[in-house]
Amino acid sequence: MTLMKENRTKEQNKRIFEAELLPQIDALYNFAYYLCHNEEDANDLVQETYMKAYRFIANYETGTNAKAWLFKILKNAFINQYRKSKNRPSQVDYEEVVNFHNEENDTNLSSYVDLREEMFQGMMGDEITTAINALPVDFRTVILLCDVEGFTYEEISKIIDIPIGTVRSRLHRSRNMLKESLRNYATSLGYKEKR
């Protein structure tokens, strides 16, 4: 049963949020992590996405693609963060520098392992993860949405606000870039190029 957006109560909106939007948190985090390359920034981005989704839940139509709706919010939040950071001069927190220096003296930092990064690399392999992360953000976004998250071209078009033809073009180019960057790796594993 689809409830009309304008006729829903706060309690109904809360139930919709919990039933349709919250289950997408893992997929959102994975996408955010690949965009940010940083666990803390990815968490902030997902939190901001859910805050906006909750604030604008009245605009969400039940029974539609909740994942696509959330990914669009996340993508817009990422772009806004990126623009802000580009326009802001770099800042250094004196406390962090002092703490880092003290930690470096106390322990060997090379033994530190980021478990989240290790998990992602274990899923796809270091070379593939590195190749995806090296793509320009527009191409990385399209390939993650299509090949990792399984969105259709139409859904990707709506999420990132570009024509379907541009989605296809970027996907083709990003796959070619990956192919080029992974050619030596594939050869070392015994794969041969088709002629």
Could you walk me through the main structural features you see in this protein, from its secondary elements to its overall organization?
With 195 residues, the protein is an all-alpha fold. Helix content is 72%, strand content 0%. It has 10 helices and no strands. The chain has helices at residues 10-21, 25-36, 39-55, 66-87, 94-106, 115-124, 126-134, 137-148, 153-160, 164-188. Helix 2 (25-36) packs parallel to helix 4 (66-87) and helix 8 packs across helix 10 (164-188). The longest helix is centred in the last third of the chain and has 25 residues, at 164-188.
What's the structural blueprint in terms of helices and strands?
Elements lengths: L9 H12 L3 H12 L2 H17 L10 H22 L6 H13 L8 H10 L1 H9 L2 H12 L4 H8 L3 H25 L7
The span between the termini is 54 Å
Order of helices and strands: HHHHHHHHHH
- Low-confidence runs (pLDDT<50, min 5 residues)? 88-92, 100-123
Oligomer: single chain
Structural class: mainly alpha
Q: What is the total tally of β strands?
A: 0
Provide the helix percentage. Answer: over 70%
Q: Indicate the radius of gyration in whole angstroms.
A: 20 Å
Morphology: elongated
Sheet having the most strands: none
Q: Compute the average pLDDT.
A: 79
Q: Bin the strand percentage.
A: under 5%
